[in-house]
Structure formats: structure tokens, C-alpha cells
Amino acid sequence: MRIDIITVLPELLKSPFEASILKRAIDKGLVEVHLHNLRDYTDNSYNQVDDYQFGGGAGMVMMIEPIDKCISQLKSQRNYDEVIYMTPDGSTLNQKMANSLSLLENIIILCGHYKGVDQRVRDLLITKEISIGDYVLSGGELGAAVLCDTIIRLLPGVLNDETSALTDSFQDGLLAPPVYTRPAEYKGVKVPEILLSGNFGKIEQWREEKALERTEKLRPDLLQ
Ligand code: ADE
């Protein structure tokens, strides 16, 4: 998979890809992530990417021209399955969306700033709009990092134990069951007996029950 991220703040997006699972995925060649500084696609002397909004009002708007130039250049080199715009008014990211995006070959992610982008960018260039939640970030970069993390960890070969993404919360529409490790007893609090029994059929059944119990208690909306 290849992910091209268009941003005015590439430095904000570097570190998530330089550590841990994402770095390993890149080093193993399982994913390519390319950051593109939108200011490199301006032809004014101030490298200006935004301007006042028509009709007046507070806040600057990102101009279509540099965005179009950058996206067109990328599209001239390969086909893209989706051109995603990170915005608080997009569809809220969930596991199902991450699963389907992880099957794609090439995607572009555009990070918004200021009051957002000229509507013509959204009408003409964007194929999907994604929000990471009902709150406003100062830019789309942290949202893009979240989106990339959730997609990349699903790519085959990225996690050491390939089944572990399958047992994540949400993968079967439920929250994950509780997990324990050594010691079997800590300050008088014991690990549930069943987990030490070696009876894997019973353990699986217990986990399913706990997953359901937890979901009913913490996220009943997932069961509706
Ligand atoms: N940009 C600003 N707020 C955002 C959000 N909640 N999700 C994605 N991109 C954003």
C-alpha cells in the first residue's frame, strides 16, 4: 500500500512514522508513506496556501490551486483508489472503515487547516471525507496520523501475530474481553481461574461472554 499525505505541516506528521509498528511496517516495505508540503506547490513569493474567504468572515480558507497541482502531479504518476479529506464534518472513522481502507492500493490524504478548504476542492478532487470524532482539531494532521495507524496495523505482515488484529475490540462488533498476565495473584487479587485451567474451549467461551458483558455495560450502542 502507498499513502501520500498532503499537509502544510509535514514536521507534525513525521514522528508517528518513525517509531514502533508504523516504522517497522515501512522498513519491511509493507507500506510507503510520503509527505508532501503543500507550500512546494505554490507559485507566489510568500508560498501562501490560504486566503480570505469570499463574502467576508473570520478565518482563512485553503486555496484550490496548490492542492490541485499537488494532487494532479500524484495522479499523473499512478492511480489512486481514494482522495481523502480530513475534516470534522466528514464520516466518523470506525473499524469497518479502517478495514475497507486497508484493502486499497494507493490513497491520498489531504489535511485541512484554518477554516478548511475551498468547497471546489471537496466537490472536484475529494472522494471521501473522514472525521476522527466530534471535536475540532487545529488541523487534519493528527487525524491523518490516527487514520494511518489504524489502517497500517491491519496490513498483512505488520503485526507479529497476525491473528491479533482479529481479536481487537470492534473487529467482531464487540469490545475485547479483559486480559491478564503474570503474576496470577497481585495484592490478593487473582486472575480468573478459568484462564489458568488450560481448557481452551472453556476459555474461548468465557472470553465471548466477557466481551458481550463489557459491550453491554460500556457501549450498549454497539449492540443496537
Ligand atoms: N480536522 C479538524 N478536526 C478534525 C477531526 N475531528 N477529524 C479529522 N480532521 C479534522
From TrEMBL:
Keyword rRNA processing belongs to the record: no
Lineage top rank: taxon: Bacteria
Residues of the tRNA methyltransferase TRMD/TRM10-type domain: 1-224
GO CC terms, sorted: cytosol
An example Gene Ontology biological process: tRNA N1-guanine methylation
Subcellular location: Cytoplasm
GO molecular function: tRNA (guanine(37)-N1)-methyltransferase activity
Enzyme class: transferase
Enzyme Commission code: 2.1.1.228
Residues reported to bind S-adenosyl-L-methionine: 112, 132-137
Keyword tRNA processing: yes
Catalytic reactions on record: guanosine(37) in tRNA + S-adenosyl-L-methionine = N(1)-methylguanosine(37) in tRNA + S-adenosyl-L-homocysteine + H(+)
Pfam families in the cross-refs: tRNA_m1G_MT (PF01746)
Record keywords, A-Z: Cytoplasm, Methyltransferase, S-adenosyl-L-methionine, Transferase, tRNA processing
HAMAP family per UniProt: TrmD
PANTHER family registered for this protein in UniProt: TRNA (GUANINE-N(1)-)-METHYLTRANSFERASE
NCBIfam families xref list: PRK00026.1, trmD
Function text: Specifically methylates guanosine-37 in various tRNAs.
Subunit structure: Homodimer.
Family: Belongs to the RNA methyltransferase TrmD family.
UniProt protein name: tRNA (guanine-N(1)-)-methyltransferase
Organism whose genome encodes this protein: Maribacter algicola
Gene for this chain: trmD
